[in-house]
């Protein structure tokens, strides 16, 4: 056996602290590298990429909406991670949540269902002094009591907008189902009933259609289903939707960007929501849902399994493919002729980048469409802030109102120009009326 001599031991002993210090530095460097990569800290702030045709209208909108042309600055330490933006939105919705006071309306549907929405009156005068109502469709399983909806409604009210927020069928915790069905990915019946009520109750108002995530799909599909649905609509804004459920279903099974994990978590929430109405869904004589379907639901680990066992059967679709095809706005959105702002984030972990080709092509082909793609923001996050703490209002909240204000001012100028070009229009109409009455 060979023994270290005293001199060698002394030399080795002096080298140990240096070795340990080197290892510590290597570990710290590795941790910092992982943090920088995971938090995407090297990614620079950037203005949204805007895709639209070069028209007088689009130039006016971009000039009037500086938030669409200047840098979006998320919180420095975590805001460039789409996962953290999405997680914070999913956990708390918004940092500070006001409590707007509205009136709940109940609308009986032809099939026995009871649609509900909350109506919030404006808290100030609109910049154009016009009567404008935002008709809002929230995200999957959401309603007017969600924090992000409350924050947006309160901000819109203070900018002079009346707000009507749909409560998705079956989403309210204290509201029992009165028919054996819940909301689905693209059913527009309840949203259409709310819009119809607003048009009848406020014949002088103009409408702004706003949809978040799944609600964006419903809003765009509603407008494209029938041209009459676009009457009195000034514009539509859709945020973080996926456009085609059929194309999205395969991406939801991939581990890229942890989509499979998000799929599992969303499926758990949907499962819990559906099972809370288990009695109503299975006991009614007209129900398409049986005990076998509910058993499959309990074993489901993905949204696709839930859609196949439960959701498609609410409207009698024969297959999952048919359900996704018929309920996706991709087949209807090209019929929308009112100004349409589509907003997505590049780092949205729920919406695969391949789906963003749909709004890109639409903006290239249709002069009324503008597509804004941010570098950061996650799914429905879009938090703004300096270093760590985000602001109560998000970039998304402010952009929707800024764009809508610009549309309202454009419409007012257009009406003024029409009166200038044809100053005797009112006189001719009055003369014709007098002749007919005579």
UniProtKB/TrEMBL annotation:
Listed EC numbers: 3.1.1.23, 3.1.1.6, 3.1.1.79
What is an annotated GO biological process for this record, any one?
Answer: sperm capacitation
Annotated AB hydrolase-1 domain residues: 133-386
Q: How does it sit in the membrane?
A: Single-pass type II membrane protein
Enumerate the InterPro entries for this protein. AB_hydrolase_1 (IPR000073), AB_hydrolase_4_CS (IPR000952), AB_hydrolase_4_sf (IPR050960), AB_hydrolase_fold (IPR029058), ABHD4 (IPR012020)
Give GO cellular component annotations, separated by semicolons: sperm flagellum; sperm plasma membrane
Quickly give the catalysed reaction.
a triacylglycerol + H2O = a diacylglycerol + a fatty acid + H(+); an acetyl ester + H2O = an aliphatic alcohol + acetate + H(+); 2-(5Z,8Z,11Z,14Z-eicosatetraenoyl)-glycerol + H2O = glycerol + (5Z,8Z,11Z,14Z)-eicosatetraenoate + H(+); Hydrolyzes glycerol monoesters of long-chain fatty acids
Task: State the protein's purpose.
Answer: Progesterone-dependent acylglycerol lipase that catalyzes hydrolysis of endocannabinoid arachidonoylglycerol (AG) from cell membrane. Acts as a progesterone receptor: progesterone-binding activates the acylglycerol lipase activity, mediating degradation of 1-arachidonoylglycerol (1AG) and 2-arachidonoylglycerol (2AG) to glycerol and arachidonic acid (AA). Also displays an ester hydrolase activity against acetyl ester, butanoate ester and hexadecanoate ester.
Protein name as catalogued: Monoacylglycerol lipase ABHD2
Species of origin? Fundulus heteroclitus
């Amino acid at each position: 056996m060979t023994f270290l001599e005293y001199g060698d031991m002394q030399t080795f002993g002096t080298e140990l602290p240096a070795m340990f210090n080197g290892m510590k530095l290597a570990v710290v460097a590795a941790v910092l590298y992982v943090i920088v990569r995971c938090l995407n800290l090297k990614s620079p702030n950037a203005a949204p990429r805007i895709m639209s045709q070069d028209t007088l209208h689009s130039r006016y909108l971009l000039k009037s909406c500086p938030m669409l042309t200047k840098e979006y600055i998320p919180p420095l330490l975590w805001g460039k991670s789409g996962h953290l933006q999405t997680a914070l939105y999913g956990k708390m919705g918004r940092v500070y949540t006001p409590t707007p006071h509205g009136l709940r309306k109940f609308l009986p549907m032809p099939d026995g269902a009871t649609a509900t929405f909350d109506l919030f009156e404006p808290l100030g005068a609109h910049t154009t002094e016009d009567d404008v109502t935002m008709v809002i469709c929230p995200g999957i399983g959401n309603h007017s009591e969600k924090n992000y909806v409350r924050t947006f409604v309160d901000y819109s009210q203070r900018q002079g907008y009346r707000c009507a927020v749909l409560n998705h069928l079956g989403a309210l915790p204290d509201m029992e189902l009165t028919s054996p069905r819940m909301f689905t990915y693209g059913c527009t019946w309840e949203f259409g009933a709310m819009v119809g009520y607003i048009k009848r109750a406020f014949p002088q108002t103009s409408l702004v259609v706003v949809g978040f995530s799944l609600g964006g799909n419903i809003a765009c599909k509603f407008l494209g289903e029938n041209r009459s649905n676009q009457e009195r609509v000034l514009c539509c804004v859709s945020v973080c939707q996926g456009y085609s459920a059929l194309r999205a279903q395969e991406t939801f099974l991939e581990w890229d960007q942890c989509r499979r994990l998000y799929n599992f978590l969303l499926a758990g929430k949907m499962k819990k929501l559906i099972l809370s109405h288990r009695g109503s869904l299975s006991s009614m004589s007209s129900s398409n849902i049986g005990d076998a379907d509910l058993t499959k639901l309990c074993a489901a680990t993905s949204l696709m399994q839930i859609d196949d066992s439960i959701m498609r059967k609410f409207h009698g679709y024969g297959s999952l493919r048919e359900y996704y095809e018929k309920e996706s706005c991709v087949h209807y959105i090209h019929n929308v002729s009112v100004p349409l702002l589509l907003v997505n984030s590049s780092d949205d972990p729920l919406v695969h980048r391949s789906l963003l080709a749909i709004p890109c092509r639409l903006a290239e082909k249709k002069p009324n469409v503008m597509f804004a793609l941010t570098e950061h923001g996650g799914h429905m996050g879009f938090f703004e802030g300096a270093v760590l703490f985000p602001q109560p209002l998000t970039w998304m909240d402010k952009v929707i109102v800024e764009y809508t204000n610009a549309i309202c001012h454009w419409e007012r100028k257009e009406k003024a120009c029409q009166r200038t070009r044809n100053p005797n229009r009112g006189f001719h109409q009055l003369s014709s009326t007098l002749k007919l009455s005579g």
